[in-house]
Request: fold
Amino acid sequence: MAISAACTPPYNSPARLNSEFMFHREFTMAQDSAKLVKLPRRTALKQTTLSESVYAEIRSRLQRGEIGPNDRVLDYEVAEEFDCTRMPVRQALLRLVSEGYLIGTTRGFVTPTLTNDDIHEIFEVRRLLEPSAAAGAVAILDDRQDAALKRAFQKAVKAHDKRDAALMIEANMEFRDVWLGAVQNARLQDTIRRFTDHAQQVRLGTLSDPGTQKIVVDGMRALLEGFLERDPRKIKTAMLAFIVNAEQQYFALLGGHD
Reply:
């Protein structure tokens, strides 16, 4: 009993009270710390998801030519459309600025004005990246993707027959998205998508031209044959010819000024 009394402090002793106080304090701090960690994480996830949605929608409108050189994208209007605050909208718009889709002004965001040198550089990057990327993607394609490529090609043929520029843009994007989705390098995939989008933004006015539409259809046909035959060399040659022909046709329609 003497040993027990020596080891156990009395209930109201300073040592015992201090020990219980320290335990309660540490337990409370741990609970508060857990709360501080969890709350911002949930908020950030919700904000990021909304910003991604706005980003994807505005980029899609730019790809389809629904936002033209004379249009202004205003953050408060987009926020009203999405029924959200301006913060996630500005995050999305600034991301589009950093990727070259838009430029900021004192009165909203507008599409950039590209010089002929800019356009030559865009096509140069495409020539360097797309042929090898498309050739490498052939090993990943399956029957489902083959069917999607065929559907996109048939849509392009229909667009050419009807002289439908909007349908041609849609077909061109669908065809590209199928083979580009098979590219395994995510950074390469993202870079190609951005530069082809930039090229399409400046070519939107020319896609209503029958000669340009024929180049698109012929290019798709050659690429489709290469993809279905699983022939990387044929794909590489077809993609390079497609890009070169598109660039030449663009400047030819400008009256030969490059």
Notes: The chain has ten helices and two strands. The chain has two domains: 14-110, 116-253.
